[in-house]
Amino acid sequence: MEAMTGLRHVELVMGTAVSIDVRDDSVGPGAVEEVVAWLHHVDDTYSTYQMTSPISRLGLGELSVDDMTDEVRDVLAQCEAMRIEPFGAGTA
Protein backbone atom coordinates (compact mmCIF):
# COMPACT_ATOMS: atom_id res chain seq x y z
CA MET A 1 0.00 0.00 0.00
CA GLU A 2 1.38 3.38 -1.03
CA ALA A 3 1.56 6.15 1.58
CA MET A 4 -0.83 9.06 1.03
CA THR A 5 0.88 12.20 -0.17
CA GLY A 6 -0.29 15.76 -0.54
CA LEU A 7 -1.44 18.29 2.02
CA ARG A 8 -4.10 18.26 4.68
CA HIS A 9 -5.30 21.24 6.66
CA VAL A 10 -8.29 22.03 8.88
CA GLU A 11 -9.22 25.68 9.40
CA LEU A 12 -11.78 27.01 11.86
CA VAL A 13 -13.62 29.71 9.95
CA MET A 14 -17.21 30.80 9.31
CA GLY A 15 -18.33 29.08 12.49
CA THR A 16 -17.25 25.64 11.28
CA ALA A 17 -14.24 23.50 10.48
CA VAL A 18 -13.20 23.55 6.82
CA SER A 19 -11.08 20.61 5.67
CA ILE A 20 -8.63 21.04 2.83
CA ASP A 21 -7.23 17.82 1.38
CA VAL A 22 -4.84 18.26 -1.54
CA ARG A 23 -3.69 15.06 -3.19
CA ASP A 24 -1.57 16.60 -5.92
CA ASP A 25 2.09 16.69 -4.91
CA SER A 26 2.72 19.57 -7.31
CA VAL A 27 0.55 21.87 -5.16
CA GLY A 28 2.61 23.56 -2.48
CA PRO A 29 1.57 24.82 0.95
CA GLY A 30 1.30 28.35 -0.45
CA ALA A 31 -1.88 27.34 -2.28
CA VAL A 32 -3.45 26.18 0.98
CA GLU A 33 -2.41 29.44 2.63
CA GLU A 34 -4.11 31.38 -0.19
CA VAL A 35 -7.34 29.39 0.25
CA VAL A 36 -7.28 29.93 4.02
CA ALA A 37 -6.68 33.67 3.57
CA TRP A 38 -9.59 33.88 1.09
CA LEU A 39 -11.93 32.02 3.48
CA HIS A 40 -11.07 34.46 6.28
CA HIS A 41 -11.52 37.42 3.92
CA VAL A 42 -14.99 36.19 2.98
CA ASP A 43 -15.88 35.60 6.63
CA ASP A 44 -14.53 39.00 7.74
CA THR A 45 -16.35 40.78 4.92
CA TYR A 46 -19.71 39.02 4.64
CA SER A 47 -20.37 37.54 8.08
CA THR A 48 -23.69 38.52 9.60
CA TYR A 49 -22.42 37.16 12.96
CA GLN A 50 -19.43 39.49 13.25
CA MET A 51 -20.79 42.89 14.18
CA THR A 52 -17.69 44.59 12.75
CA SER A 53 -18.01 43.09 9.26
CA PRO A 54 -19.01 45.49 6.50
CA ILE A 55 -22.18 43.48 5.80
CA SER A 56 -23.24 43.60 9.47
CA ARG A 57 -22.51 47.31 9.61
CA LEU A 58 -24.50 47.83 6.42
CA GLY A 59 -27.42 45.93 7.93
CA LEU A 60 -27.22 48.00 11.10
CA GLY A 61 -27.28 51.22 9.07
CA GLU A 62 -23.78 52.23 10.23
CA LEU A 63 -22.53 52.11 6.62
CA SER A 64 -24.20 52.66 3.28
CA VAL A 65 -23.77 50.78 0.01
CA ASP A 66 -21.57 53.67 -1.12
CA ASP A 67 -19.22 52.88 1.79
CA MET A 68 -18.72 49.29 0.59
CA THR A 69 -15.75 48.10 -1.46
CA ASP A 70 -16.18 47.47 -5.18
CA GLU A 71 -16.21 43.74 -4.40
CA VAL A 72 -19.11 44.03 -1.96
CA ARG A 73 -21.07 46.39 -4.21
CA ASP A 74 -20.64 43.91 -7.08
CA VAL A 75 -21.89 41.00 -4.96
CA LEU A 76 -24.87 43.06 -3.77
CA ALA A 77 -25.69 44.03 -7.36
CA GLN A 78 -25.56 40.38 -8.44
CA CYS A 79 -27.83 39.42 -5.54
CA GLU A 80 -30.32 42.11 -6.53
CA ALA A 81 -30.25 40.93 -10.15
CA MET A 82 -31.01 37.38 -9.06
CA ARG A 83 -33.75 38.57 -6.72
CA ILE A 84 -35.43 40.39 -9.59
CA GLU A 85 -34.83 37.78 -12.30
CA PRO A 86 -34.08 34.36 -10.79
CA PHE A 87 -32.31 32.03 -13.19
CA GLY A 88 -34.81 29.64 -14.71
CA ALA A 89 -37.60 30.51 -12.31
CA GLY A 90 -40.84 31.34 -14.03
CA THR A 91 -42.88 34.26 -12.78
CA ALA A 92 -46.04 33.33 -14.67
Describe this structure in words.
By secondary structure, the chain is α+β, with helices and mostly antiparallel strands. It has one domain. The protein is 42% helix and 15% strand. The protein has three helices and two strands; from the N terminus they run E-E-H-H-H. The protein has helices at residues 29-46, 54-59, 70-84, and strands spanning 7-13, 16-22. Strands 1-2 form a two-stranded antiparallel sheet. The mean pLDDT is 90.
Q: State the separation between the terminal residues, measured CA to CA.
A: 59 Å
User: Low-confidence parts lasting 5 or more residues at pLDDT below 50?
Assistant: none
Structural class by secondary-structure content: alpha+beta
Number of helices: 3
SSE pattern:
EEHHH
- State Rg: 18 Å
Mean pLDDT: 90
Helix content range of the residues, please?
A: 40-55%
Q: Topology, please?
A:
Blueprint: E1 7-13, E2 16-22, H1 29-46, H2 54-59, H3 70-84
Pick out its properties.
92 residues, two-stranded antiparallel sheet
Short description:
This protein has 92 residues and is α+β, with helices and mostly antiparallel strands.
